[in-house]
Amino acid sequence: MMKGDPMSETIEDVSALIVNKLLANPKVPRDINGSSKIVEDLAFDSLAVMNFVMEIEDEMDVSVPLDRLADIRTVDDLATCIVSLKNGG
Amino acid sequence: MSIFDKFRTVEQRLALLTAGGGRNPFDVMIERPVSSTVGIIEGRETLLFGTNNYLGLSQSQRAIDAAIDAVRARGVGTTGSRIANGTQSVHRELEQRIASFFGQKHCMVFSTGYQANLGMISTLAGKDDYLILDADSHASIYDASRLGHAQVIRFKHNDPDDLHKRLRRLEGTPGAKLVVVEGIYSMTGNVAPLKEMAAIKRETGATLLVDEAHSFGVLGPTGRGVAEAEGVEADVDFIVGTFSKSLGTVGGYCVSNHDEIDLVRLQCRPYMFTASLPPEVIAATMAALDDMVAQPELRTQLSQNAAQFHAGLKGLGLNVSQQVSPVVAVTLETVEEAIALWNRLLDLGLYVNLSLPPATPDHRPLLRCSVMASHTSAQIARAVEIFAEAGASLG
């Protein structure tokens, strides 16, 4: 997959990328997947969520407006949001 | 299910902070100030190194006299909003004085600095606009982003390249882009690279708002803040600030050359739906501004004091802010260590602010100190000594 190429990025791809990025943090439980809840399962507070999303934004070359974060609970939700933003939504 | 269930987490966190007999850091009482630099805390004289009173003007005799005269002449309050019965001649006069000090056409005065940010940012950035914030923005800026209806995007703290990247991603999208930065960041003392930010603003056509709350009276040849110091005032569309730091009173302002400011007054809820500043506060604020203008040496002294304190703490091997400014933040690794040190400093007669995550930028606690022009060199040396003693006693 080419970084930043919207045509080749599926929700599954982005979700896998997010999980990999999360696993780079040793404090994150090892058994996370797309259904993991970012706040409850990963024990992220609001600032940690915003800072983590910033890392993903860099990776995906997209900006996620803060109001969109309110609707995001799971890793898959975040992946869906990013793919939608990359497709202009 | 109780309405208070959601407070249990904060209750538990507070219990941890005070475990072992430590103080509640959010409940410190300065029984009375002895001077701008010394207050009575727990019955004894304590050096104040955490009051944001950068020029020491909270105790200005000129401001005290002006407040007394105003209260005798006008009473203690206005009992109304600026757009109803809450505008007296002194409110207009203060707005003209602040606008003239900044060399700008317009000024709106708010009842607090918090409301100035809340009001200006939430009103300027509308539903179809983008609000682009530094990641380490003050709570008033984040709260403004929630009160307003714009799409909110954060960029990395003090990183012009990241700001540029995020504005580039928005190229071609409809809606105005309002970039918000602070002159000096309140928690860390970091100074914004405003020259680079202003260049990006010019290139991208964004609108720029700078919150000079902690830099007004502190930086720039005449104390107008970072925009003046960096020579980019012409690029800043809106400068927001407060009277509660360098001028020692309370209240907020926004200055601008945009004539539409008078329309903002009619849309800005934190300006419209609150009581205006009482006349004695206005009088004291104008007198403190007179003091500030008449004594540029206060700024020079402040800068020297900041350098002495910063070097002193650095000399102890503490992890202090990289940039020297009147806000000197000591970063610690654990909350337990920060609480123990903060308690010990206060035991030894030194008051600083304890700042805990998530209110700090990177999940590490801070002992946030602020220096004043009115601190003597001996007081600063003593404060550094107290840090050394406290550190030694805690190992």
Shape of chain A: globular
Rg of chain A, nearest Å: 12 Å
What's the average pLDDT of chain A? 85
Within CATH, the superfamily of chain A carries the name: ACP-like
* CATH homologous superfamily classification of the largest domain in chain B: Type I PLP-dependent aspartate aminotransferase-like (Major domain)
What oligomeric state do these chains adopt? heterodimer
Number of strands of chain A: 0
What amount of the residues of chain B lies in strands?
A: 15-25%
DSSP strand (E) fraction of chain A?
under 5%
Low-confidence stretches of chain A: none
Query: What's the number of structural domains of chain B?
Result: 2
Mean pLDDT across all amino acids of chain B: 96
CATH architecture of the largest domain in chain B: 3-Layer(aba) Sandwich
* CATH-defined topology of chain A: Non-ribosomal Peptide Synthetase Peptidyl Carrier Protein, Chain A
Helical proportion of chain B? 40-55%
Straight-line N-to-C gap of chain B: 45 Å
Annotation, overall tally of beta strands of chain B: 14
Through-space gap between termini of chain A: 21 Å
Q: State the secondary-structure class of chain A.
A: mainly alpha
**Major sheet attributes of chain B:** 7 strands, mixed
Domain Carrier (chain A): 9-86
Protein name (chain A): Carrier domain-containing protein
Organism (chain A): Acetobacter nitrogenifigens DSM 23921 = NBRC 105050
Cofactor (chain B): pyridoxal 5'-phosphate
Task: Characterize the structure shown.
The complex is a heterodimer of chains A (89) and B (395). Chain A is an all-alpha fold. Chain A has helices at residues 11-23, 46-60, 66-69, 75-86. Chain A has one domain (6-86): ACP-like (Non-ribosomal Peptide Synthetase Peptidyl Carrier Protein, Chain A). Chain B is α/β, with parallel strands linked by helices and 395 residues long. Chain B has two domains: 5-59 and 296-394, Aspartate Aminotransferase, domain 1 (Alpha-Beta Complex); 78-277, Aspartate Aminotransferase, domain 2 (3-Layer(aba) Sandwich). Chain B is 40% helix and 16% strand. Chain B contains 14 helices and 14 strands. Chain B has helices at 8-18, 61-74, 89-102, 113-124, 139-147, 160-169, 194-204, 226-229, 261-264, 269-272, 279-294, 297-315, 335-347, 377-394, and strands spanning 30-33, 38-41, 44-48, 106-110, 130-134, 151-155, 177-182, 207-211, 238-242, 252-256, 327-331, 350-351, 353-355, 366-370. Chain B has a seven-stranded mixed beta sheet with strand order 4-10-9-8-7-5-6, sandwiched between helices. A four-stranded mixed beta sheet of chain B has the order 1-2-3-12. Chain B has a three-stranded antiparallel beta sheet with strand order 11-14-13, with helices on one face. In chain B, helix 6 (160-169) packs parallel to helix 7 (194-204). The chains are: A mainly alpha (89), B alpha/beta (395).
